[in-house]
Amino acid sequence: MQPSARYSLLMTLLLSSQLALGQPGPGEGPDENLEAIEPVAEPVRVGLAGEYPADIARFLLVQGVSGAQLSPAGDYVAVSKSVTGEPQLWLIPVDGSQSRQLTFGNGITFFRWAPDGNSLIYGADNAGDEQEAYFRISVDGKHEAELVPALPGAFRFFGGVLPDDRHIVFASTERNGLDFDIYVRDTESGEQRMIYEGEFAWWPRTVAPDGKSLLMTQAVGEDSNNLFSLDIESGEVTTLSEPERRANTEAGGFAWTADGKYVFHASNEDREFRALVRRELASNEVEVLVEADHDIDNVQLCGENERFLIWTTNEDGFFRLHGRDLIEGRDLDIPEVPEGVYSLSCPPGSAVAALVVNGWSTPGDLLKWDLAAGSAETLWAANLAGLDPERLVRPESIRMPARDGVVLQGLLYLPREDVRLDDGPPPVVFDVHGGPTAQSMVNFTGAMQYLLNRGIAVFRPNIRGSTGFGHTYVTLDDQERRLDSIRDLVDMVEFFREDGRVDADRAIVRGGSYGGYAVNAVLANHPGYFIAGVSLFGVADWVTALEVAAPALKASDIIEYGDIREERWREFYTTYSPIRQADQINVPVLYSHGVNDRRVEIYETEVMVRTLRANDIEAPYIRFRDEGHGWRRLSNRLFYHRREAEFMLQQFGLTDSEDNADNE
User: Fold this and answer.
1) Can you identify the CATH homologous superfamily of domain 24-58+388-662?
2) Contact yes or no for 633/85 (Cβ under 8 A)
């Protein structure tokens, strides 16, 4: 029997059994008959400040800022900040006066300054369903209006505000629920006009200074894009970059000259890493300004007469600041700032940039960078919730060979000597990132620092297919090579067996989204390497997952995984999906999923839970009815991570009477 025939038979039998048992199939919502743990109201336990090992709640209550944007006049920095767990919009005055919260609803998904600096545009969805509405709110927070209402099936991508401060541009799937078209909307009259009809993922990225055109991208896989200029009035499209070998021209951002003749951005076209380039729009000539053996990001053009060009490099997940005085032709003096992942914002004409540092010991500090003076001062410092920063652990970037000669990389966090459990090497948690084309960086991760606080090492692998290590590396897991990246996790375990810094015989694998798939896949295809798994909203069956993928993922999925509409890919994933090898999983796995998830259907988790339980494998399952692809609400994060930590400590044999009493 051919694989496609076997798949059809298996799916027929599976769906028939689900129907007979009243179990929902793909896209039909949660299985109400499946035993699941769901959040309940419980008191917040934090322990005492200065008490170690510190309670996990303190690591989750750490508060930083993200997404800083300096206002057009340079007097405020708008940031996203989560006090209750829901990200809200805050304004932090540059003069150091008191910050204030502007939004108070379900949480924001993005924000942008309006050109006049008197208001901001922001997006918000419903409990993580990713179907946004758009709003405008005044700087004083006293006036707020809905600009674009949410629509069922309308996934959106915001492109910007035109200079008239009245019209906005965005992409939306409202035409058919699948393809992103680009619209311009009059926010006063509500009149909306499609200016480009797309297929799959077409997104407006930045509006030209005169408001007559914009740059838009077409997604090419998970990591690349084509680049076009779109005339807003006529809809005329000009191709700027559509290379035969896919490339990324958008991840580093876009910085226009005031006359709109040039745009600075980062591009890895015809090279391994993203270089800093200047593109002339009229001729489409590209000048390479800076090349490095690392990706360039955060491109900003600042200062009077466009004097300062600033950017960052990503060096194994540690970011570095760079800058150039274009008038004097010299490199800028770079201030000393904490290690971490950086984001920059600098409005046209400003000699000051806003800098957010999210690092292993600095979870979201906001700094003001004086570009001329080469100095930086803190505007807002993250609240460490009573934790001692000296006890937070710095990672080390390490490399190791895979069996086929590919050089792999990851970040290794080793617990302090005074919290080690014994004289031997510590047990380890492999924390696999999502994407698949994401990257493990040195940003603050509270749940992982808690494990280090308990004497457990953490390794955050960047298996092949991760970004940050060149174009070739990110393509090494495409399509038929999908399981090569899963095998990398096994080779990393073997490396640590020889290396000796961690106890590779006591390893747990954990991950969310694509990382959740990686957990399912490595336990199913390579039993015996991990003693347990933790899979958050991960894929079980690529056939069903790709068929019902969210619109934003459809086009990228074709490059990354293959077109599931084609018989060859249905046959391939019929054979090589974790659910097909689930009978080989022989260790406990903790599962979790949000009912509102629009990226990975809840079916993917629940079919794994049912299968493992049928095989007498321990598979506890936590289900959130008010979450989507990840946990936004603080109460849910506290509920989940306390139980995740308890599960892992149990698997390591490290629970004690105090832990058990806390969870009774």
Assistant:
1) Alpha/Beta hydrolase fold, catalytic domain (3.40.50.1820)
2) yes
